[in-house]
Specification:
alpha+beta; RNA polymerase II cis-regulatory region sequence-specific DNA binding
Length: 155
């Protein structure tokens, strides 16, 4: 947040890179961070399914990137997984960067909510389909069975 600059080696895994950045900036281990470029385009490393991928796959050598804090909803609340903001750790970020970060955060949150609605709709369809299925049992074919003697019939 004091606008310090330092070089990073992108020939390592994203996990190692982000660990190094946290250590260099003395950021707590808890909480998500990410990088954005000069235009404010997030790299979305915090969503990466394979943090063992090399950072060079996503970053360009000799480019400038900024560290951003990913703000989520309050823990223990219904909105704890929501995306609240992407905040660059800069003293005076450019307004264009802030707007780009805000737009990306809003789009990511809209996508998250849409995914939740689709998952909930699938649950409703599955429940309704199992509850409302008519069951048809085959009628027994009595012509293939001999009649029972009357002494074995019970009334």
């Amino acid at each position: 947040s004091d606008n310090q600059e330092f070089l990073i080696n992108i020939n390592c895994s994203v996990r190692v890179l982000m660990h190094y950045i946290r250590k260099k900036l003395r950021l707590p281990k808890k909480g998500e961070i990410d990088l954005c470029d000069e235009m404010g385009t997030m790299k979305l490393f915090f969503l990466l399914k394979t943090p063992e991928d090399y950072a060079s796959k996503f970053l360009t050598a000799r480019s400038t990137y900024y560290v951003c804090k990913v703000e989520r909803g309050a823990p223990g609340t219904r909105i704890e997984d929501s995306y609240r903001a992407f905040v660059p750790l800069l003293k005076n970020p450019e307004p264009e960067m802030l707007e780009a970060l805000r737009t990306q955060c809003d789009l990511l949150e809209q996508s998250r909510l849409k995914t939740i609605r689709i998952q909930e709709a699938k649950k409703v369809v599955i429940i309704e389909s199992t509850v409302n299925l008519p069951v048809r049992l085959p009628k027994p074919d009595l012509s293939q069975h001999p009649p029972l003697p009357t002494s074995q019939l019970k009334a």
